[in-house]
Amino acid sequence: MADKGANSCDGEASTDENADSASKSPLNKQWVKLNVGGTCFLTTRTTLCRDPKSFLYRLCQEDPELSSDKDETGAYLIDRDPTYFGPILNYLRHGKLVINKDLAEEGVLEEAEFYNITELIKMVKRLIQERNQHHRARDAKKHVYRVLQCHEDELTQMVSTMSDGWRFEQLINIGSSYNYGNDDHAEFLCVVSREYPGATPNATEFEPTDRAQLIQQKAARM
C-alpha cells in the first residue's frame, strides 16, 4: 500500500486549459511530483530541500549532473522502492522517523543513504544499534542445569511437579541397580534447566546434586 503522501500518477491528466492555467500559477512552482518506482508522491520544494546535501535537494535545483527524467505527467522518475520512500519523505516533512512494523530499519537506511540525508542516516543507524543491543540483552541469559536422580516409579511425578521456571531437558537411563523387594527399579538421570537473565551470553552452569554426582560417576564406569 502506498504512503498517504502518495497519489497515483495515472489518470491525472488535465485539460489543456487547466494545464496552462496551472503552469502560470505561482503556487504550482512550490509543488513537486515524484514518480518513485511507479508510485506518485506529491510534496513541496521546501520539504525536499530540507537537507541541502541531499539528492532530492539537487533534484529540485535541477542539477545538470543528475540525469533526472520525467514521466508524461511531469513527475521526476526515481527508480527506487516506493514502500521505503514513505518514511524518507515523512522525515523531511516533520523531522521524525516513523517506520511501519512491516518495514525493516536496514531498508530505510539503504534509502536514506541513497538520498544522502545525513541526519536521517545517523538516526536510523542509532535505531539499529539500539535494537541490536536490546536483542543481545534479551538473549544474554545464563542457563543453569541440574542433574536429578530418580527411580522409574518417581519419574512421572518429578517431571509433572517441576516449577519455578525449571524445564525438562534430557532423561538418561543408567540401568537397574537398586532392588526393592522382588522388583528391579530402573534408575534415571533427569537433566533440567533454568534461565537467569543478565548474564554473559551462552553461559552455562551445572548444579548436580550429591546423589546425582555419585550416579554420574557410576554411569561413567558402565
From TrEMBL:
Molecular-function GO terms, alphabetical: cullin family protein binding
GO biological process, one term: protein homooligomerization
InterPro entries in the cross-refs: BTB/POZ_dom, SKP1/BTB/POZ_sf, T1-type_BTB
Matching Pfam families: BTB_2
SUPFAM superfamilies noted in UniProt: POZ domain
GO (cellular component) term, any one: cytoplasm
Residue runs in coiled coils: none
Chain positions covered by the region annotation Disordered: 1-24
SMART domains: BTB
Protein name: Potassium channel protein
Gene3D superfamilies referenced in this protein's UniProt entry, alphabetically: 3.30.70.2000, 6.10.140.750, Potassium Channel Kv1.1, Chain A
Residue ranges annotated for the BTB domain, each copy included: 30-132
Keyword entries, A-Z: Ion channel, Ion transport, Transport
